[in-house]
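Lay summary. Proteins are chains of building blocks that fold into shapes, and those shapes determine what they do. In this project we predict the shape from the chain. Here is one chain we studied, written as its sequence of building blocks.
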Amino acid sequence: MKIKAIVALITNGLLISSALAANEIQASTVKVQEKNLCKNKTFWQTHFTHGQFNGFYSQMTNDVISNAQHQFANHYFEGNLFNKDLPRALDLYQRAHNRGNPESTAKLGLVYRYGLSTQKDYQKAFEFYQSIAGNNPDAQFNLGLMYRYGIGTLKNQQQAFNYFKQAASNQMVVKNNCEVQVRGIPEAQFQLGQMYRYGLGVKKNLDQALLWFEEASNQDLKEAQFNAAQLIMSGIGEHHDYDAALDYYQRAAEQGMPEAQLNLAREYHYNDRQKDYLKAHHWYTKAAKQGQIEAEFNLGLMEHYGHGVYPNYQKALMHYEEAAKINQPEAFLNIAHIHYYGMGKPKDFLLAYQYYQLASNYNLPQANYQLGVMNEFGQGTSQDLETAQEYYQRAANQGNIDAKMALQKLPIKEPDDLEILASN
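And here is the predicted shape, written in a compact code that computers can read:
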């Protein structure tokens, strides 16, 4: 069947080759009078008119030529039937646009916006989109983006909102001379949700934001699923539906969204309602592979304490060290603990002291207490009771009970001039 379709396309292309040539002859424009021409006419109505057979191929009307140009341009643009040739695609899109083909006009907007086979020209892109915005959801969506971010025009959040709302809604559009209904563009629905969520171009309304995120979620847009889950978790909506929020996180996570994988793992790790260490470890691992440093730290905790896995201090240390690369204070602290107590490795007071100092720079009370201990007993540094007292005091001021007890037991350092005073 596919071979027959290709043969038919090529044959049709040969029949209109003169119209695709550089010096093509302009065919007269034929306006379609019947509504839904492609749907309402039967095979016999199409190919047998005036009592005789007209042939299987379309008449050489303006619409037929522009549609053929658009199809050939798509093949050159995507490289799925012909070798990819963006300049040739651009030329054919331009020819089809000149004949009034709105789908080619939308493609030209795309080409000039992103500089595909030509220099970027935001103004041209804006003009192409604007010329077909009345009946083209793709153009409406792109105009929304251009108004929102000030691309090719001045920023205008109200205009952006209006175009996103058009593109987000179901519409009747003309495609290949057929009037068909198309669903709202999910990316436009997501943008509409964002504008309601943050009050951009419209009064802030979290219920409306959730509604549009859910609309886009139904079309499997992972960003919308993630945002819908966030809003539901925060109590937006008619009632707090924890299971629905978890489902949205799950669906976004399965599509590879690292933020959703992290949040889903958190729920399985810390929420008593859904606690499942195996699932938490699974999703933390996926999120960590995509650069989520918090996931690295939590994997360290799970390996450290044997949650969902057997305790493995070496793996824990590896994950903590990844988290420490972005200066996560708790990672510094836990690395220090592993070196200080010799977990899965020999004790190393020097390294422990260094990492406790790094954690202390972020005022972690446990780090301050440990530095007090190490200075009191000369571990990883020379014994220094004054410095020990300073660290104990800092930790005690932060509410650390062990530091308060250590201060009471800390030996009093004799004054340096005690012998001089005694001799007098």
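What the prediction tells us: The chain has a mean pLDDT of 87.
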